[in-house]
């Protein structure tokens, strides 16, 4: 009864906008006590992530300039400098609107389930249905996002091997084996993630910033300059089969929009973040703004120091030729490209941790078949071990795509971007509807958008819709089985599978994860 009384008191404070830091700490204690008292789904996680670690977690997880560096080949054939330069500005502004919209909801209800819990909470009706559908989409998107890290690293390693040994011809199964080897490290590392977090985040943040500065200074000092006209006025629309400049520019956005996704990763660590209602919104917005600025600055530098565009475009990993033409040294080129791979590798630990918590939370709400298995928390390690094992298994299986498709890397990049943007859309849409209809009061947390809320939500939704239009389209024409973009069909298959799950057992099994402070 004491817990319930305190619960009511804190909820009243939330609705009146008087929630201070003491209230937040008390509420987190209440939430943790309730989970322990009711034995909620096999145990609860422990709060140990402070403000610095929370900001660094998202900051490193996105690693935007590094991801853009190893994927901008998509923009060279579609859009060219126009997609890279103006697309970076567009993506930075649009993603900030999306992150700000979700940060407000994170302040209301900082939960591991995040998007699917908010959709279940704010949907005007059919809450259980929208919650389950959102859960499947979000979990799938994050598994694909987790796969993209080893895909990026393996692409870098294969590119460097080819660069240093031109006679080497990489087989598709080589990439699969490299992805498997890379996945082992964060899988094992997450068993002791709590002990690794602080040093890992500190090293990652330092590398993320220092390598960024060193790379830009090196290119500016040593590389041959591109013309201002090339950087600001070149729109490539005749290299991929797409002849429309507008379509080419839209397709080229993949290289600059994909790296800015994933800012919600810290959300899925909510049960381990102290004062989550304040720190998670700050972490999300800070991460997006800083990464967007760094990505724009880096890609602007690359465009001005690109060198021979034909040589760069012909390389499977163009950034190698950018550094090689600038330095004239294979050793220096290897060093700079390996630095990029190191940061993406560190980010892999964060992505792996985040998606395992998301899967655990979805299982805790009976969103998956055999949920009782994946909802367990190891009593000693305080980690969702079974969820970690499932994620590792999924990554191993998805890596097999390389063996059957020469364009698997495209799928590993476009799939998480498409899935994550879709997962961002629905909770923003539902909170926007509630704002406009005023059908129910909104349980604001410490961070609220006020009168700007509807405009920020609307801008975020328009940005998402625009980006999602281009993600499923193939990068080259004519479309064949080899160059087909399978992102759209795979997302469609997940939605169909989620509908089937709803019809068979999901509607009875899934528990609507309504936030405690939701007005009834």
UniProtKB/TrEMBL annotation:
Its main location: membrane. The chain crosses the membrane at residues 129-153, 173-193, 205-226, 246-267, 288-307, 335-362, 383-403, 409-433, 454-473, 485-504. It is found in: Membrane. Keywords: Membrane, Transmembrane, Transmembrane helix, Transport. GO terms for cellular component: membrane. It is a multi-pass membrane protein. It comes from the Eukaryota. GO terms for molecular function: transmembrane transporter activity. The keyword Membrane applies. Pfam families: AA_permease_2 (PF13520). This is Amino acid transporter.
């Amino acid at each position: 009864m004491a817990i319930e009384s305190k619960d009511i008191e804190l909820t009243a404070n939330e609705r009146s906008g008087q929630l201070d830091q003491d209230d937040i700490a008390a509420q987190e204690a209440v939430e943790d006590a309730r989970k322990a008292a009711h034995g909620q789904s096999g145990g609860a996680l422990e709060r140990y992530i402070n403000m610095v670690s929370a900001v660094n977690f998202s900051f490193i997880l996105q690693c935007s300039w590094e991801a853009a560096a190893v994927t901008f080949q998509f923009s060279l054939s579609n859009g060219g400098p126009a997609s890279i330069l103006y697309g970076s500005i567009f993506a930075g502004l649009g993603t900030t609107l999306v992150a700000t919209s979700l940060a407000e909801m994170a302040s209301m209800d900082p939960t591991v389930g995040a998007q699917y819990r908010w959709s279940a909470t704010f949907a005007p009706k059919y809450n259980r249905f929208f919650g389950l559908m959102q859960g499947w989409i979000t979990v799938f998107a994050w598994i694909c996002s987790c796969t993209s890290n080893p895909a990026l690293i393996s692409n870098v390693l294969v590119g460097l091997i080819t660069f240093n040994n031109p006679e080497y011809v990489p087989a598709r199964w080589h990439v699969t084996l490299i992805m498997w080897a890379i996945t082992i490290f964060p899988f094992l590392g997450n068993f002791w993630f709590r002990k690794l977090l602080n040093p890992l985040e500190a090293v990652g943040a330092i590398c993320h910033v220092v390598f960024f500065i060193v790379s830009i200074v090196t290119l500016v000092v040593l590389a041959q300059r591109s013309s201002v006209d090339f950087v600001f006025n070149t729109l490539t629309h005749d290299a991929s089969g797409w002849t429309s400049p507008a379509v080419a520019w839209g397709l080229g956005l993949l290289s600059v929009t994909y790296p800015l996704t994933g800012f919600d990763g810290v959300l899925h660590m909510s049960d381990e973040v102290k004062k989550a209602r304040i720190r998670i919104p700050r972490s999300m917005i800070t991460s997006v703004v800083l990464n967007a600025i760094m990505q724009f600055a880096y890609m602007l530098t690359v465009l001005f120091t690109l060198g021979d565009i034909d040589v760069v475009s012909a390389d499977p990993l163009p950034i190698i030729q950018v550094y090689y033409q600038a330095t004239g040294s294979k050793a220096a080129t290897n060093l700079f490209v390996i630095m990029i791979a190191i940061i993406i590798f560190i980010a892999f630990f964060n992505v792996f941790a985040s998606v395992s918590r998301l899967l655990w939370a979805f299982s805790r709400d009976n969103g998956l078949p055999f949920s009782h298995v994946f909802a367990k928390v190891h009593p000693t390690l305080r980690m969702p071990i079974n969820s970690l094992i499932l994620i590792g298994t999924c990554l191993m299986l998805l890596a097999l795509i390389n063996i059957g498709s020469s364009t698997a890397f495209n799928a590993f990049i476009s799939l998480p971007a498409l899935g994550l943007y879709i997962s961002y859309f629905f909770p923003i849409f539902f909170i926007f509807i509630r704002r406009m209809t005023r059908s129910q009061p909104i349980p604001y947390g410490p961070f609220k958008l006020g009168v700007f809320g509807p405009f920020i939500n609307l801008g975020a939704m328009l940005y998402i819709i625009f980006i999602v239009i281009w993600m499923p389209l193939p990068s080259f024409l004519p479309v064949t089985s080899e160059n087909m973009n399978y992102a759209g069909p795979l997302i469609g298959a997940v939605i169909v599978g989620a509908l089937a799950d709803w019809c068979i057992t999901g509607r009875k099994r899934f528990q609507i994860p309504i936030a405690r402070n939701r007005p009834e």
